[in-house]
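[Discussion] Sanity-checking designs against the backbone

I'm trying to build intuition for which residues belong where. Below is a C-alpha cell string of 373 positions. I'd appreciate it if someone posts a full sequence so I can compare it with mine line by line.
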C-alpha cells in the first residue's frame, strides 16, 4: 500500500498523538508499505514529510493547526499517488485532504485522537462544545472509517452520530519503559534517596490535564509521607504559573527516549487526574516502568488497572475518591508486588498487534472502495 498520513502534530512534537502516528507509520514501512506524512513541522528524521503552513493554537504555542487548500492536496496526491489516507486531525488541513480524496476516489480512514471539544472552555472558547460535536460528526462521516483508542471514546462518538467507529488501541515499548532504568543519581537530583517516596506526573502542563488536582493530590500524598517529593515531567502553557504556585516541586521539562524512560522508572507513584483523554499513553508507559498509577476509571486506566492489585482507580471525575486512592497509594508506595503486577500488565500490549490491526483497517477500506467501483 501507498499510505499518506495527514496530521497537524508529528515528531519532533512531544505528545502522545505524535509518538503514536510515528510508531504506526514506521511499523507499516517495516511491513513493506510506502508511507509519507503531511504535517506542520520540518524535520529531516523519520518518514518523508510534506510540510504545510500552520498557526499556533491561541494560548498554546506548542500545538499548531495546519492549513492546506484542496488544490494543494490534489497536487500532492497526483505526485505521491496514495492508495489510502489516514487523516489524524480534524483541522482545515485534514478537511482539505478529505475533500481532495473524494475527488480522486481515494479511501480515507480518520482518527479521533484528541477530545478537542472538551478543551474549548480551557482555551477561552466556552459554550461551543455542541457546535464542535456537530463539526466533528460532519468531518468523520465523510470518511469510510473512524478509529479511536478506547471503547469509552468509541461509545461517545457513536452517541454523537458518527458512523462506522472502530477501536484501535495503543501499545508500549516494554524494552524502553523498564524498571531497570531506575537511576539513583537522578533521584538524588530531585532530593530523594531510596527511602524517599517520589510522586510523578508526565504529560502536557496544560489546563485540560486537570493539574489543580495534581497539586491537591500531592498535598494528600505528603500528609501520609511527609518526606515525599513531586516531579513534573513535561512542558506547556501552565508551566510557569505552576512553578510560581509550587516552587517545592521539581520541574524536569520535556523528556524523550531513554531519558524519559529513566524519569518514569525513577519515580514511585504516577498521578494521572486527567478527565479528557481518548486513551492515555502515559498510563501504559508508567505501568511498563513499574509504577503504581492513580487514575480515573475510564480509557486506558479502565482497560489496564485492577484497583488495589496493579494500581488504583477512582470513579470518573470523583475528586474525593481520587484523593482517597492517593492516600492508599502513598501508604503502599514500596509495594513491590503491586509494581511488578503493573509491569506485567503492560507486557501483552506491544505495538506490533496495533500496527497489524492498523494495516488491516486501511486495507479493508481500500477493498470496500474497489468493490464499489
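Best answer:
Here's mine. Compare freely.
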Amino acid at each position: 500500500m501507498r499510505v499518506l498520513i495527514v496530521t497537524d502534530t508529528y515528531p519532533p512534537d512531544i505528545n502522545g498523538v505524535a509518538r503514536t502516528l510515528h510508531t504506526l507509520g514506521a511499523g507499516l514501512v517495516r511491513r513493506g508499505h510506502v508511507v509519507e506524512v503531511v504535517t506542520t513541522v520540518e524535520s529531516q528524521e523519520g518518514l518523508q514529510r510534506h510540510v504545510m503552513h500552520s498557526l499556533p493554537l491561541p494560548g498554546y504555542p506548542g500545538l499548531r493547526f495546519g492549513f492546506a487548500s484542496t488544490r494543494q492536496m490534489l497536487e500532492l496526491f497526483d505526485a505521491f499517488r496514495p492508495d489510502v489516507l489516514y487523516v489524524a486531525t480534524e483541522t482545515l488541513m485534514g478537511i482539505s485532504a478529505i475533500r481532495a480524496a473524494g475527488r480522486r476516489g481515494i479511501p480515507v480512514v480518520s482518527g479521533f485522537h484528541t477530545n478537542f471539544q472538551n478543551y474549548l472552555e480551557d482555551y477561552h472558547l466556552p459554550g461551543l462544545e455542541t457546535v464542535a460535536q456537530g463539526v466533528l460528526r460532519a468531518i468523520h462521516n465523510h470518511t469510510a472509517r473512524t478509529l479511536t483508542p478506547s471503547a469509552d471514546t468509541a461509545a461517545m462518538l457513536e452517541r454523537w452520530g458518527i458512523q462506522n467507529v472502530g477501536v484501535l488501541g495503543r501499545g508500549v515499548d516494554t524494552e524502553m519503559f523498564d524498571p531497570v532504568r531506575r537511576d539513583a543519581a537522578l533521584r538524588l537530583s530531585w532530593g530523594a534517596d531510596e527511602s524517599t517516596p517520589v510522586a510523578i506526573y508526565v504529560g502536557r502542563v496544560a489546563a485540560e490535564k486537570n493539574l489543580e488536582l495534581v497539586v491537591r493530590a500531592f498535598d494528600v500524598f505528603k500528609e501520609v509521607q511527609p518526606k515525599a517529593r513531586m516531579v513534573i515531567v513535561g512542558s506547556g502553557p501552565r508551566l510557569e504559573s505552576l512553578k510560581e504556585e509550587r516552587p517545592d516541586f521539581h520541574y524536569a521539562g520535556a523528556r524523550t527516549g531513554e531519558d524519559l524512560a529513566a524519569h518514569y522508572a525513577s519515580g514511585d507513584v504516577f498521578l494521572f487526574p486527567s478527565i479528557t483523554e481518548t486513551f492515555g499513553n502515559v498510563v501504559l508507559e508508567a505501568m511498563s516502568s513499574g509504577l503504581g498509577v492513580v487514575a480515573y476509571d475510564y480509557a486506558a486506566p479502565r482497560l489496564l488497572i485492577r484497583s488495589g492489585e496493579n494500581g488504583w482507580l477512582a470513579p470518573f471525575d470523583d475528586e474525593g475518591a481520587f484523593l482517597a486512592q492517593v492516600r492508599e497509594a502513598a501508604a503502599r508506595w514500596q509495594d513491590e508486588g503491586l509494581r511488578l503486577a503493573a509491569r506485567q500488565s503492560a507486557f501483552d500490549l506491544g505495538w506490533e498487534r496495533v500496527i497489524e490491526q492498523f494495516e488491516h483497517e486501511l486495507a479493508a477500506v481500500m477493498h470496500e472502495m474497489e468493490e464499489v467501483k
